[in-house]
Amino acid sequence: MKGFFQRVYQIVAQIPEGKVATYGQIAALLGEPRNARVVGWAMHKAPRALNLPCHRVVNQAGTMGPGYLFGPGEQRMLLETEGVTFTPDGRIDLEKHLWDPFEN
Fold first, then answer.
1. Range of 76's domain?
2. I need a surface site. Which of 41, 53, 63, 87 has the fewest CB within 10 A?
């Protein structure tokens, strides 16, 4: 799995400010569409020294990770600071902010 984790980190490092990617999207980009949970595990284990924008990785519904990952409300605050907007029910507006890695 170490090689898989490294590939996950390479993709996450490319997510631009103001955009988010889903665990499943990252797994699909790696050619491993059934490994969204492993992407989540990789994010949980991401070394701080890599300084990855982990807050930009969310689930397919556009909701944030549990509070223990970032601290209560911290992930949302980081995303809002980058201009990410939310729907009235508190989910990320994925129509506006889902990252398209093939877009110029």
1. 2-97
2. 87
Is 102 within a domain? no
Assess if residue 103 is contained within a domain: no
- Number of Cβ within 10 Å of residue 86's Cβ equals 16
Report whether 25 contacts 57 (CB < 8 A): no
The residue whose two tokens read 């093939």 is 102
Structure confidence at residue 104 as a pLDDT band (50, 70, 90) = low
**14 is a domain residue:** yes
Tokens of 85: 């907007």
Q: What is the pLDDT of residues 61-92, one digit of tens each?
A: 999 877 667 777 899 999 999 999 999 999 99
Q: What residues are labeled active site?
A: 54
Count of the separate structural domains present in the chain: 1
